[in-house]
Amino acid sequence: MIHIIYTCTLNPAIDLFVEMDSLEPYVVNRTSDEDYQANGKGINVSIVLHKWGVGSVALGFVGGFTGEYIKSELERIGILTDFVDIDGITRINIFVNAETEFKIVNRGPKIESDSIEEMLRKIKAIPKNSMLFVSGSVPKGVEEDIYVEIAKISRQNDVKLILDVSSKKLLDCLPYHPHLIKPNDEELAHFFGKDCLSDEEIVIYGKQLLQKGAEQVIVSLGERGAMYFSGEKAVKTSSVSGQVVNTACAGDTLLATFVVKRLAGHTVEEALAYASAAGASTAFSKGISDLADVEGLVKRVHVSHL
Question: Which are the catalytic amino acids?
Fold first, then answer.
């Protein structure tokens, strides 16, 4: 039984979502709609968990007025936080939905060594039999080796680690047997030095991640659904078609929903179908979906065994 669920966002953000008819150079582009959301991949997981009625504690680095906004927003909706306060200002990312989708992502503030050590102390204090999601990029001042250090700590302390990171350092985490990893198809190709992968190659390399030490692997495929691999089975789900508004949080919604459904006792096949439906629901929304349409969408998801 899971003791407590934690999420760790090393480089959180406020995401500004805007809509406009078109985005043109050298002129004033006025928006028709806007929305501000506390964000960052681990924070997104905490928000989705909360929407499913599952509590978590959000860890991360935050600073400035933007960091205060993130803390207050999460606390307002009932998510516990245990952030490390830093100098500098937490980043703001911009997502524009015009004729097509534009994503403008900032690097974020530099993190000093004492703040990094404070974060690692918090992770070392996570109780045995808890679950820890580590998602997203590292900010300035933090080396990607921190992923490996967190994997090592989690293994030593019997914490189930879930990794959703694009860095090749993920491969160095695998000897510590993370509970679940979730690359997308582009990240999987990057890990193995490829430009792109066919579905057959995704199966091959997904299973290689298992051989290297991962206990479970989900490869998110965007509008094509997702694949799941473990030592016992390989499963593929389709997605569902609809009007895509913003894809930024879809993978986080998919991952959190899969874990929620597995913790609730659903089979892998059921959980992955719900995950694909929930990811699509968020893609059809400005930000993270309210999940109200998931029960309807899941009926349109096709599940097959590989």
Answer: 252
